[in-house]
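User: ok so my PI wants both of these folded by tonight, can you help

Assistant: No problem, let's get them done. Here's the first:
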Amino acid sequence: MAHYAFLNENNIVTEVIVGKDETDTTHDWEQYYGAIRGQVCKRTSYNGNYRKNYAGIGCTYDTQRNAFIAPQPYSSWTLDEQTCGWYPPTPMPTDGKRYRWNEPTTSWVAVE
């Protein structure tokens, strides 16, 4: 079983479906599903084996990186070119407490 993402004209993911695994070589499944919908279709995977990140609705497919990229969560966060994931300017503390990001102060705040 594999997952496939459909893209709109701006390369934004509009839907993700479960489809045939590409070990079934009777078709190029991206082409097959894309032709049925009339949209570009790209395979994705939960474990990042395909295109770095799992494609969720609203993610962008970056053709240069051949990767799915989630929307930027905060303006201060930067994109890691290797993982295509977003990272804060300071890492979250690892002291066992729960934290949330505070964008105005660009810092982590403990959640009580």
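One down. Here's the second:
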Amino acid sequence: MHIHNVFFWLKDGLESQALDAFAKGLNSLANDPAVKSSHYGKPADVHRDVVETTYTYGLVLIFDDLAAHDRYLAGAVHLKFLEDNASKWERVVVYDIQT
């Protein structure tokens, strides 16, 4: 299994319409046939020194294997998401986990 964790820091001052479009874009990523499971959301209301909460949205995509992940990266759904949304973030961090 390959777990793809992505954290987005969106630009300040985005209008609500742009924020809604970004969330819809995250939701659309689940439509890629290589994605086994998808979850996204805002930081949890947890206050501990070891918990990172400065990001705007987090995304977790689960794939059967690395090959499925690689198909997703090159696929139309992911490329459309990048085209529509890359201008909205100032930082992205990815943590991939292989199990």
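The first helix runs from residue 16 to 28. The CA atoms of residues 18 and 29 lie 17 Å apart. Good luck tonight!
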